[in-house]
Amino acid sequence: GRYQIIPSTLKGVQNRLGLPDNTKYNAETQDKMGVSLLTERSSIKNYLSGKVPDTKENLEQASLEVAKIWSSVGVPFDTRGSRQSVSKNQSYYTGGGDTASVKTEDVQDALKKLRINYDDLFSWKISKGGQKKNRKWLYITLASIGAKGLGFEIY
User: Fold this and answer.
1) Could you read off the pLDDT of 101-139 as tens digits, one per residue?
2) What does the DSSP assignment read for 5-23?
3) Rounded to two decimals, what is the model's pTM?
4) How many CB atoms lie within 10 A of CB 93?
5) Which residue of 34, 53, 82, 122 has the fewest C-beta atoms within 10 A of its own C-beta?
6) CA distances from 61 to 5, 14, 18, 50, 127 (A)
């Protein structure tokens, strides 16, 4: 798959998107789920949409939320994780067997690119003509975080 989504999260995002159980789990469906997971978190959505200023604090808060979605993404600063205190670039879920393979700086670079092109995150859902191009852009931008980071397979 394009994203590493644990079963309980997968079922939740499926329900929130209103996808029936027989929905084909193809690239388009996976992209919808990935975008949904990102934009369901207010600090990520507010940063990406430009509703908050492009400050270090807002970028770090958005990247912390990404680290809470995907355990392979490192946190942007020392903080309390889900089980214990964690240092910058450790997994938010350290202590349960999870390790971060993607640095927060890489996530922040990708978030900045997504912020600049925020409207493109959703245009592939509506426009048939630009669908393939925009889905490819989304895939490449998020893949820049790292193939291991969000569970992307490079193919």
Assistant:
1) 889 998 898 888 888 877 766 654 433 344 444 455 455
2) --HHHHHHHHHHHT--TT-
3) 0.78
4) 21
5) 53
6) 21, 26, 28, 14, 31
